[in-house]
Design brief:
This protein is an alpha+beta fold and 152 residues long. The chain is built from 5 helices and 8 strands. 32% of the residues lie in helices and 23% in strands.
Amino acid sequence: MNLNVYHIKFLQMLVRANARFIVIGGQARMLYSEHCPRDLDIWVDISADSQTQILDVLNNWWTIHPLHSSGTLPLNLGPKIQIHIPEWDVHFLDDGGNQVQITADDGIDILTSLHDWNFEAVFQRCARRIEHNMTLFVLNKCDSALSDSLPR
């Protein structure tokens, strides 16, 4: 996977919160092709059991990085919501305290639904991948190819 420090920090927050999500888009395709994305697309579980963890992570992220978004967090995450962070070019401190520029094109897209698919069914079919000491659930090859062929 082609994860930058911004992606890694956000994913670490999700994993620590036991939030359920699936890596989709270019990062998933990268496992099965030569595609090399700059951004990170994730599909988050918005079921009643998982929504609290997702909202807590988003609230924490916006508290730590208030200049990365002009929007406000939805009180309830319903279907067909897409959140993009950062919305513009920003600076971000890595673990060593070094300033790293993150452009909007290097950011993260958080989707609350993917086509008309059932999160739980897709989650059960996911590939598991260890990246930066995290177990990530990644859209499998068949689902990734099918997702690419469907209109958004």
